[in-house]
Amino acid sequence: MDKKNRYGYMEGIIGIVANLVLFGLKYWAGVVTGSLALIADAWHTLSDSASSLIVVGSVRLSSRKADSRHPFGHGRYQQIASIFIAFLLGIVAYEFLTGSIEKFSQHESTQFGTLAIVVTAISVLVKEGLAQYAFWTFRKTGLEILRADGWHHRSDAISSLVVLIGILLGNHFWWMDSVLSFLISLMLFYAVFEIIRNSVDKLLGEHPNDPLIEEVKQLINRITDQKICPHHFHIHTYGDHRELTFHIMIQGSLDVETGHGIASTIEEALREEMNIEATIHVEPIH
């Protein structure tokens, strides 16, 4: 397992341990105070361990080397796992939405004891800390699944934060908890949409971004003195493994062996300098 995948694996393990500890703390506080809502929130926290287990499992699977059946490796397990986590996050968002509508229709406010408030505040801090750690590892590694898991952690932090706001303002505005829950559900649905869109784009294949194309062109200009016109770029992402295909136009007077040598030189440079496997189609300039 390389360094990038170790970051993801560690994020998942930390998430599992933290969620198990928070589950025990919330469940104990719910039993002591008699708060059914806090006990329900404890089970919600325990369910978050599922997303962390998906992270650990997908990192394990995606780090496997290419084989005869999967010549491009197993990196797309990360996109598949991200969609699973987005599905779990969508369930949470739906629960926020239906719960907010039910609370509003019944004029229900949130009320807890002091112990529940303390435990809920701890949950907000811990879960947001886990979210920040997941987002940091995503920026460090680019693993989409870590961003998805970060949003899942944040959804639990937001859930607890809504409870605290409801406690503080519920006596003045009975509708505060339900309205905040409704707005948060919309935000989470948007996060689900973004996670699924990014994952599906990578599964389907996407056009390389302009900075990547420009970097490839600069590399080509640097390593050869021939007049070369690269175009028609396509990229396929398999986790850490990227397959880039494009065309190059060279002087039609050059023989096949020279054209092949130019393409091979570019492919080798892309492999060594940008960690990209390239397939190049050679065309003549007339």
Features:
three-stranded mixed sheet; 2 domains; elongated; 71% helix; 286 residues; mainly alpha; Alpha-Beta Plaits; Alpha-lytic protease prodomain-like
Please explain how this structure is put together.
This protein has 286 residues and is mainly α. It folds into two domains: 3-204, Cation efflux protein transmembrane domain (Alpha-lytic protease prodomain-like, Up-down Bundle); 210-285, Cation efflux protein, cytoplasmic domain (Alpha-Beta Plaits, 2-Layer Sandwich), CATH 3.30.70.1350. It is 71% helix and 11% strand. It has eight helices and three strands; from the N terminus they run αααααααββαβ. The protein has helices spanning 3-33, 36-62, 77-105, 114-141, 144-169, 176-204, 210-223, 256-274, and strands at residues 229-238, 241-251, 276-285. It has a three-stranded mixed beta sheet with strand order 1-2-3. A hairpin with a 2-residue loop joins β1 (229-238) and β2. α2 packs antiparallel against α3 (77-105). The radius of gyration is 25 Å and the shape is elongated. The mean pLDDT is 78.
Brief rundown of the structure:
The protein has 286 residues and is mainly α. The chain folds into 2 domains: 3-204, Up-down Bundle (Alpha-lytic protease prodomain-like), CATH 1.20.1510.10; 210-285, Cation efflux protein, cytoplasmic domain (Alpha-Beta Plaits).
